Records
---
Amino acid sequence: MNKPSNLFIYGKTGTGKTVSVKYTTNSLLETAFKNKIPLKVVYVNCKLKKVSDTEYRLVAQLAKEFGKMIPATGLPTDEVYKIFFKAVDSKNQIVILILDEIDQLAKKAGDAILYNLTRINEELRKSQLSIIGISNDLVFVDNLDPRVKSSLSEEEILFPPYNALQIQDILRERAKLAFKQGVLSNGVIEKCAAYAAREHGDARRALELLRVAGEIAERSGSQKVLLKHIDLAENKIERERILDAVETQPKQFQAVLYSLILLSKGKNLVFYTGDIYDVYKDLCDKINLRPLTQRRVSDIIGELDMLGIINARIISKGRYGRTREITLSTSKELTQKIEVLLKTALDID
DNA sequence: CCTCCACAGGAAGCGCAGGAGT
DNA sequence: ACTCCTGCGCTTCCTGTGGAGG
């Protein structure tokens, strides 16, 4: 029983990394089962908030996969490590640990975790542990602690992004199963692929786009999926993403966003952090919300920017200081919908 | 060339929630 | 009941800075 190498996989989103790994490990599990080799595969997505985006939660999640329940908080971290370690080493087995979106984890919680994990392997007596790291960030591995780097990337695989032609192939495969022949009008596949290729070759996006376009065509009573349905689909996907994001934000985030919407009713379209903060403070007064400091609001603006709800970029107004230049990134209709949504959420009027 | 604005954004740390052990 | 641990949102205090106006 040779110790399997650690493996590092990187490539942009939607290039099939996760699917490939899952497929491979599944067939590995089958072979192992046939030959009575004790193999366990654990898959963890490090990006999922509230599950495993900190050291404690990751290890707790891992332990959970081995049937050990760990509370969300309360234990010292090294205690959790011990529980996990014991669970792995409790019997003869090979364990494959898949850490998806590992770059997110290291960015948020530091690479000490990865070092600890790779070291566990050396201390295991009975079992063997092999780590598969999946990263969307291509340069991520270069910024790692050299010790982690050498042990984690014993083997490396790069998934290049799909180009438009490859996405077309994928879409055609899927279209055969999902659509009756001739339903897709000319150029629909090509257009979907082109959209997705522009988004760094994300095949998942392309498939979703095609699916939603199909739904829209069906609902509008069209016999065929037309090019315009793709535009509508892209619009719809984006709109729903934003509305969903807005609705699930905490109250303070919603208040900051609402302040920006209030400002945008004037004739200006571009605002600065200070403008928003002033309006925000007034708003807090009105709706009985404890105002946060400008420092915090500044972070919130940054996070709203990350969500794509607003655009914020740092500019310098020379003598008049350095600040963020902020605009709404949504269309008029969408902004109105958001406004209505926020009014209910914040209990205004 | 220097100054100085209006913030950006890093660092430390606080208070709370929630859980374990004793 | 009490101590010890963690995560999380937040405050406080701080240093850094691009470029218009002097």
---
Amino acid sequence: MPELPEVETVRRGLHDRIIGKVISSVTHDTPRSFPNDDSSVKEFLTGSTIIAVRRRAKVLMIDLSTAYSLVIHLKMTGQLVYDGKERFGAGHPSDSLVGTLPDRSTRVTLSFEDGSVLYFNDQRKFGWVRLMPTANISDLPFMRTVGPEPLEPWFTATQFAARLERHPKANIKATLLNQTVIAGVGNIYADESLWGAMIHPKRLTGSLKPEEVELLYSEIRSVMNLSIDKGGSSNHTYVNADGKKGSYMDFARVFRRQGLPCPRCGTVIEKIRVAGRGTHICPVCQQE
DNA sequence: CACTTGACCTGTCCGC
DNA sequence: TGCGGACAGGTCAAGT
């Protein structure tokens, strides 16, 4: 689902709501959504306090007072929805957006001592929640290989260029989606930033001119910063921790806008297939 | 090795 | 209305 801006939006929402809460019980439906599938783990979780909510790439980490963490990947359709009870009674506007929880896509339910609840919903079951020692997170294969955070100030255009140079024969869209190159870019922001930089997604990474790389670098950052500002992008399955939708799609220039005019030149936006993914381009602004 | 494709799941939408 | 197939905001394993 969710790419960096959506996961960051969820992280911020959770940070403001669940820090200091004490877990009272944990339930789950399918083992694949909660691989630590035994009662002792759940017993172990009970009574622990949430001390931090962090993000790396598209992965969320909920740190507990026990020096363990819940590590969460939402993949394509995962959601984390907090129900504070005291504010979200029946009839709250969020009810009409996400329905009443839990529902049939609820995979993990985290209950807190104060009566509030955090639901992990995931229609396609690709996502997961797993418990591990906080200190071991950095040893996960994904964490060892994932690229730099694109919005951090120390991530420079020079560094971006150097990382692109490692994949000269792959098309630029595949390279942007490659999490070992740069963290957190997914299908939406790959398309949006390539349009912004006027680069065709099928261009080989090695064919990009230095000025194109520099423009792409700044487009990735500005598009993602804008999206975080707007609370992320929402489709029918994405909601933030409030159960509300983000508004970035109101600002999207090409993503899911096939058949509509390019905001830059008015040419009809096309949808093609690149790197196995639906890809949106302006055929005039982005020459192959 | 570098790069691309298929598989993992469930649900929805579109064309016949 | 029913049915088949394509497709969906990600990642990893297997294939070329």
